[in-house]
Amino acid sequence: MNAVNIDMLTFLKNIVNRTTIDYMIIDNGGAEYQLLPMIAIENVLEDNGIVICQMNVEIYAPGPLDRLEQFAEIMLAILKAKRFAPIHSLYWGHLRTFFINIDHPFCVEKYLVQFFEEQST
């Protein structure tokens, strides 16, 4: 049997064929160390017309030391890029981290503004 590999951008643009993804779950056995920077730092998807508003990413345990350093570099770069904010993390052998897009106006309006509007009583 032949297996076909396609990259994430091609899959989202040509097969999923949506410009906005409200919620994406990423659990891909270690490749998150390449995908997370592509999405949250390098902005590859948004530069190609695809907006992700929320992501739940399973990050393989950040150890041994080389992976721990890579994890720290990625998280620092995500914070510096100011596109996504890590909102919640849960460690259970791997690190399940929830990110929200704080940069794109559609995502901010749909998922964040409601928490910062003044409530009238």
| CATH domain fold name | Translation Initiation Factor IF3
Beta-strand content estimate? 25-35%
What's the CATH C level?
Alpha Beta
Average pLDDT score: 90
- Show unreliable segments: none
Cα gyration radius (Å): 16 Å
Shape: globular
What is the N-to-C succession of helices and strands? Answer: HEHHEHEEH
Tell me the domain tally.
1
Instruction: Provide the spatial order of strands within the biggest beta sheet.
Output: 1-2-4-3
Oligomeric category: single chain
Work out the helicity level. Answer: 25-40%
Cα-to-Cα separation, first versus last residue: 64 Å
- Characterize the biggest β-sheet: 4 strands, mixed
Topology:
Blueprint: H1 8-16, E1 20-26, H2 32-40, H3 44-47, E2 51-59, H4 65-81, E3 84-91, E4 95-101, H5 105-111
Parallel strand pairs: 1-2
Antiparallel strand pairs: 2-4, 3-4
Helix pairs in contact: 2-4
Features:
121 residues; alpha+beta; Translation Initiation Factor IF3; 4-stranded mixed beta sheet; 5 helices; globular
